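User: I'll paste a sequence; please echo it back and then give the predicted structure.

Assistant: Echoing your sequence first, then the prediction.
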Amino acid sequence: MTDLVQPTKPTTGYWLWLSDNRPAIIKELGTGKGSAVAKHAGEKWKALPAADRKPYEDKAATAKKEYDAKMEEFLAAGGVKNKRKMKEPKDGKRGGKKARADARAASGMPKRPPSAYFQFMKENQEAIRKEVGPGKPISAVGALGGQKWKAMTDAQKKPYEDKVAKLKAEWVKAVEEWKKTAGANADENDEDEDDNEEEEEQ
């Protein structure tokens, strides 16, 4: 019996455009540095007229429909869907979380707001740093901040959680607006952030 192979999720209109235009962008910048190319490409994509985006978005939409059909066949045959990372163009280099962050920034995706814990740390980092004392590594600040957060009551955490809930609601709206122009497969980009949003609170 042949092993079932999960279909590979197609790329977005932005990545298709970047694949075609990366050499020209590198030539224009005079450097192939990933972060510089990603930033400039993102600016050019945002400024691209809808008519110029359309061929790439249409191609991405067609690939998405084909992928959905193949996925249905895969699941119907007994396959189990596993979360997989989006396949990026072969001429692009991946560099772990930084590369994915660069990709999200380049595509213009709104940045997810911090968790309630990170909001707490943002507002209290200086006080915690003073409490830790001079000369101590940043990890000591994070460790003490984590201890303080865990020791807080629900009532003490609520102001931070309420603030983050408001920011997240605004972020969700911004992402929905972004998805309308970012390509058929835009929601793939925010998977990694879901994985690690609360990891520092553990």
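Helices lie at 13-29, 34-47, 50-76, 96-107, 116-132, 138-151, 154-182, 191-196. DSSP finds eight helices and no strands in the chain.
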